[in-house]
Write a structure and sequence with these properties.
Order of helices and strands: EEE
Largest sheet: 3 strands, antiparallel
Radius of gyration: 17 Å
Distance between the termini: 45 Å
Strand order of the largest sheet: 1-2-3
Number of helices: 0
Helix content: under 10%
Shape: flat
Structural class: mainly beta
Length: 76
């Protein structure tokens, strides 16, 4: 018998949300090549996202630039 997973727990199955997410906080570290954001869906659920860029050990970037845009409040 299948039972639905509680949608309000952090260990729930992934859900595709096609809608607006309001970014509440964001940050990045150009030395660690990481970035993150916290947000809230239009209909109330919280979300978070983070990423780290990995490079082979023998490579290092010559320049890293973080740009915060006014139109979408995200780091590119």
């Amino acid at each position: 018998m299948l039972e639905p997973v509680n949608h309000a727990t952090p260990d729930r199955a992934p859900v595709w949300y096609y809608g607006d997410t309001h970014v509440l906080a964001l940050g990045a570290d150009r030395h660690d090549l990481t970035f993150w954001l916290d947000g809230k869906a239009e209909q109330g659920l919280s979300m978070a996202e983070a990423a780290a860029i990995g490079l082979p050990a023998d490579l290092s970037p010559t320049a890293v630039k973080l740009v915060k845009t006014r139109t979408n409040s995200a780091w590119w």
